[in-house]
Amino acid sequence: MFKQFVLISMIAVGFAGCSDDSVNVENLKAIGGAKYGGTFRFMSSEKIETILPLQATTLYIQRITSQIFDPILRLDASGTKVIPSVAESFTVSPDGKSYTLNIRKGIYFHPDECLDGEGRELTAEDVKFTLDMSCSGLKLNEISFMLNDRVVGASEFNKATKTQFKAGGVSGIKVLDRYKVQISLVEAFAGFDKLLTYSGFGIFPKEAYDFYKEDIKNHPVGTGPFMLEEFSNKGLKLKRNPNYWAKDQFGNQLPFLAAIELSYTKNKRSELIAFRERKIDLVLEIPTEEVDNILGSLQEAQEGKTVKHKVDSKQSFSVTFLGMSQQNPVLKDVLVRKAINHAIDREGLVNHTLQGEGYPVSNGFIPNTEFFPASRVKGPDFNVNKANALLAKAGYANGNGFPQLVIYVSGNKDAANHLLAKGISKQLKENLGIVTTVELVNFEKRNEYVKSGKASLWVSGWIADYPDGESFLSIFYGKYANLNSEFMNPFKYRNAKFDDLYVRLNKELDSKKRTDIMVECDQQIVDDAVVTPLVNDDFITMINSRIRNFKTNSLENLDFSSIFIKEPKGSN
Asked: CA 72 to CA 65: how far, in whole Å?
């Protein structure tokens, strides 16, 4: 999924006039040291325009939809192990081409007008409907690429549902009984269980789609720990689902929080100031150069004037890159793309432009993790002489005759992504004689330009949808070049060797052989200079000490179902 460089941040700035229904919740008693009640407030730098999982293609949207909708399977706190959710278990056929999901009993949808003001039990029919919708060609579905090449009959169903949903759904998704669904795959796919943890498959009932139609994006009906209470251009409020099915290890019914509120912020500095004023519960994407100035001095901390907090850091399974569209005839030339890759000093970008934030990419596109050995991929070295030789061979010696291009970037002025774009523009001028301008636009506009082909160069980020290197490789698959998508092969890259490797990867069940193919795929991306990988970073959070049981992982998921609020001893 797109990792927007200016991501969501959690803070405690209230909604004026909002009702607080935490009193009844706080009367509940928990064992094991937890506590019920309280409101967790946070902010986003980008407005949320939809609360439909089928349209949750960015982290800041997914961090809301994942609180309202339950996925089929989920990941544990580490973000690496698949654990039960709506499906309490599953079995795989010996040939790896059929998955049978055993649906948990006793899960209920939130009460809603589409359900006559009540909730009802989730069944296998709801799982099939959600997956059918995820494969459909309907305009409101933005995630069909996840299943259409993998599930039997999905591509045919997608083509048949461009204007309306059709009864019967996908032929390869069958309801066996009230609590059992079978999914037939075109080819065995070793990572399919991980794919089913994707939050875009959050389960919702057919009644909601029939009742709300296109407006379903404003009327989420899920089974998750929280329900929508308010949604406006100022933000949104979620309230506790008192009938949520999950319990913690002590038997306490989740969630503990009474409510969650989201509002919007213009810049990171105002959030950090709010943190210092004890309105802040959590801040993500911390600009370290600002922290000391805003949080206060050591003396102030000793005098109890600074907020008690903890800082957590996890390696993020993400990469920031310079995208290059091969729709542009100049960038279609691999010599030009290679020249750009060799002309970028990534260490200089990290050490000087970003003031030490992040890690320069020295290998391929997939970050190094416990399940991918990035060191086996040979990345492009910083070599100005080689870069100029390649550019000259392409016919643009010293940048002569090279058209002036725009680097599009989203976010706030002088935020990390904006600084990166300006740093790249400066290096291209100094090292190759290529003149570019940087245009700062909002996230939606940047995506629109990429999708339409207006953007030839853009700074973007990608984070895995599930813990598998295949999630990175999928965006380069040649079949997706015709989608006109802002996130699935927007580069318009087509290479028969890569496509063959990618297809083999999805069929391979042996983990070692799969890793070998993955390395080959990543090396091919580097050799073809499809994009310019720039920076890997850490997922850093700064959290108020009163927020307990908050956990992060490399996929940057946020789960509010088990956190609770408890003031630390000695707090003001």
From this structure: 14
Give the separation between CA 12 and CA 287, rounded to whole angstroms: 19
pTM for the whole thing?
0.84
CA nearest 190: which of 90, 101, 97, 103? 97
- Strand order of the β-sheet with 309-315 is 282-284, 538-544, 309-315
Quick one: pLDDT at residue 146?
Answer: 92
| pLDDT at position 8 | 31
Please tell me the distance from the alpha carbon of residue 344 to that of residue 322, in angstroms, as a whole number. 10
Determine contact, residues 535/360, Cβ cutoff 8 Å: yes
C-alpha torsion sign, points 207, 212, 213, 215: negative
Parallel, antiparallel, or unpaired: how do β-strands 405-410 and 436-441 relate? Answer: parallel
Contact (Cβ atoms closer than 8 angstroms) between residue 213 and residue 64: no
Q: What DSSP line would sit under 15-26, residue for residue? A: PTT----HHHHH
Q: Could you tell me the two tokens for 178? A: 């009230």
Pair 92, 189: CB distance under 8 Å = no
Find the helix packing angle between 268-276 and 288-295, rounded to 10°. Answer: 30
Q: What are φ and ψ of residue 261, in 5° steps?
A: -125, 140
Distance CA 154, CA 163 (A): 16
d(CA 258, CA 271): 23
Handedness of CA 46, 50, 51, 53 (dihedral sign): negative
- List the chain residues with pLDDT less than 50: 4-23, 298-299, 301-302
The pLDDT value recorded for residue 25 is 86
pLDDT score of 254 = 97
